Amino acid sequence: MSSGIGRTWRELRDRLAAAEIPTAALDAQLLVRHVLDLDATGLIASETDPFPGGKSEDLEALVLRRIAGEPIARILGVQEFYGLDFGLNAATLIPRPETEMLVDFGIEHLKSHPAPAVLDLGTGTGCIVLSLLANLPGARGWGVDISADALEQAQANAEALGLADRFVARHGSWFDPLGGEKFDLIVSNPPYIASATIETLDAGVKSFDPMAALDGGADGLGPYRIIAAKAREHLVAAGARALEIGFDQGHMVNELLSSAGFCEIAIAKDLAGHDRMVTARAPK
Predict the structure, then answer these.
(1) 81, β-bridge pairs
(2) pLDDT on residue 205
(3) 39, 19, 21: which is closest to 29 by C-alpha?
(4) Residue 215 confidence (pLDDT)
(5) 73 partner at 20 to 30 Å CA-CA among 13, 32, 38, 270?
(6) What spatial distance separates the first Cα and last Cα of the chain, rounded to whole Å?
(7) Burial (Cβ within 10 Å: 0-12, 13-18, ≥19) of residue 133
(8) Which of 34, 17, 28, 21 lies closest to 68, judged by CA?
(9) What are the angstrom distances between the C-alpha of 11 and each of 4, 18, 29, 71, 135?
(10) Phi, psi of 86 (to 5 degrees)
(11) Which residues of the chain have pLDDT under 50?
(12) Hey, which residues does 83 pair with through a beta bridge?
C-alpha cells in the first residue's frame, strides 16, 4: 500500500533537511503539489489520500535535482514576481524580490502618464516590463534581449498574463534592435557580476543561471557603460531610467550616468540595506 500524500511530503521534507536544503518543508510541499497538480488547499485536502504510485518516479527525479542544488523555481519552471507568475527557461534568470524595486519606481514615475512607453533592456522573463504593464493599463512595453530563447519566454509570459497586445519583443544587443523609438522610462537588470567573481557565487547561481545574464565584464560595469552612453538617445525629455546594481556599484554607476548628462541621480537600498537601484532623469 502506498503512503499517504501527507506522509510523502513530510518524508521528503526530512530528506531535504538532511541534505541541508534550508527551505526543506516548503520545497517538499511545492514538489509534491507540482507532481500531483495540486494547489495549497488541494494538498491539505488530500492529506490522507494515497500517493499515486505512478507519480513516484516523477517525484524522485525532481527531488534528486533539488538535492543537487538546482533552485526550486527552475525545477518548477515558474517564479512569482510582483504578484504574478512568470515562466522560466534555461536562458532566463529567476526573478528576485529585490528587482521589484524597479517596478515600484516605474509605477510611481509613470502613474500620471496616460500612455507611457517603457523599454526593458535584457528583459529575460519580461518580469519587470510586464509587471509595469499589468499595473499601468495605458502603457506599452518593449523587451530587448540578446537571447532568442529568453525572448520566446518573455513573449509566452506576456501571452499568459494577457499583456501580449501591449508588449513588443526585440532580438538584439541593448539598443541595437531599436530604431528611433523614444521611451518615457528605461529599466534594466543587466549582467553586473565581474567575470572573475562568478566562480565565488552560490552554486545554485553559477551552476544553473545563464552566464550571459550574469557576466558584466572585467569590472562588472560593461553594460552600464553602454546604457549610460546611449540611453539619452531613446528617452523623451525628462524621461527616467532605473537600473538594478550590485551592492558595491552605486557610486560608479552614479558617475557614469552623471558624465553622460543625466540628472536627479539617486541610489536606493534594498530591504537588506544594500545599494540595489540607481535612478536618474534625462534633461528636460
Answers:
(1) 84
(2) 85
(3) 39
(4) 85
(5) 270
(6) 73
(7) buried
(8) 21
(9) 11, 11, 11, 20, 41
(10) -120, 125
(11) 1
(12) none
The answer to whether 192 and 122 have CB atoms below 8 angstroms apart is: no
**Element holding 205 (H helix, E strand):** helix 203-206
Tell me the chain's radius of gyration from C-alpha atoms: 21
Instruction: With H, G, I as helix, E, B as strand and everything else as coil, classify residue 118.
Output: strand
- Which 8-state DSSP code applies to residue 162? T
Query: Model pTM greater than 0.90?
Result: yes
**Residue listed under C-alpha cell 516605474:** 106
Encode pLDDT of 213-272 as tens digits. 888 999 999 999 999 999 999 999 999 999 999 999 999 999 999 999 999 999 999 999
User: Contact, 142 vs 171, CB < 8 A?
Assistant: no
Beta bridge partners, 187, equal 120, 242
- pLDDT of the residue at 203: 77
Residue type, 276: R
